[in-house]
Amino acid sequence: MCEHVEELEGSELGTKDYWESSYSREIKNYRDHGDVGEVWFDEDSQNRIICWIAKQDETIKADDSIIDLGCGNGMMLIELAREGYTKLTGIDYSPKAIELAKAICKDQNLAIDYKVVDLLSESEVIALGLFKVVHDKGTYDAISLYPEDAKTMRNLYIAHVHRMLADDGLFILTSCNWTESELVSSFGELFRLQTVIPTPTFKFGGKVGSVVTSVVFVKNASK
């Protein structure tokens, strides 16, 4: 049985309005100065994930389907494209985020499929199909900060990720709000932990902790 996971306090970071406003500013900055914007909460985490994926050459092939959930400005997928991966999809519920991602991608002369998709909509998730790699850095965190009934939103997210992940697929999740044990508890009904991607640690008060947690899940075997 999964242990109880205490919900996070709601925040504007869990609202669509916040992200639409943020990406509107980033679109202007990109048009005016060529600035692609920030990588939310940790660019080093993004680079660690890309390096980890590149090392899984016996499991993840260059033409395997990879989707980035809450892709924002799309830089994660742009870096993967530069590494030779060819079947890349980025989704975000913010139309402004997708507008920015498409603009950057076009200027980089890369082929990446960006779509406006609400991860909490079952029909929209079904329409996406299946993926060998599902990646999320920060989107589960944002959903967890939804101001109203975040638990229901989290459970929808978990079910929908399970639906879009191929049976032999990998779900790579990086969080700055949840610990490894909390993630394993929340996802444990539908997923099992395959590995933990090492992240920098700190020591405080005699205890060792991490600023971020990166885990790789696979689907639980069907009963």
UniProtKB/TrEMBL annotation:
The UniProt record lists the keyword Transferase: yes
Residues covered by the Methyltransferase domain: 61-188
Enzyme class of the recorded protein, top EC level: transferase
Keyword annotations: Cytoplasm, Methyltransferase, S-adenosyl-L-methionine, Transferase
Segments forming a coiled coil: none
Chief place of localization: cytoplasm
GO MF annotation: an example: protein-lysine N-methyltransferase activity
GO (cellular component) term, any one: cytoplasm
Pfam families documented for this protein: Methyltransf_31
Domain of life: Eukaryota
Subcellular location: Cytoplasm
InterPro entries in UniProt: Efm4/METTL10, Methyltranfer_dom, SAM-dependent_MTases_sf
EC number annotated for this UniProt entry: 2.1.1.-
Biological process annotations from GO: methylation
Function: S-adenosyl-L-methionine-dependent protein-lysine N-methyltransferase that methylates elongation factor 1-alpha.
Family assignment from sequence similarity: Belongs to the class I-like SAM-binding methyltransferase superfamily. EFM4 family.
Name this protein carries in UniProt: Protein-lysine N-methyltransferase ZHAS_00012982
Lineage start: Eukaryota, Metazoa, Ecdysozoa, Arthropoda, Hexapoda
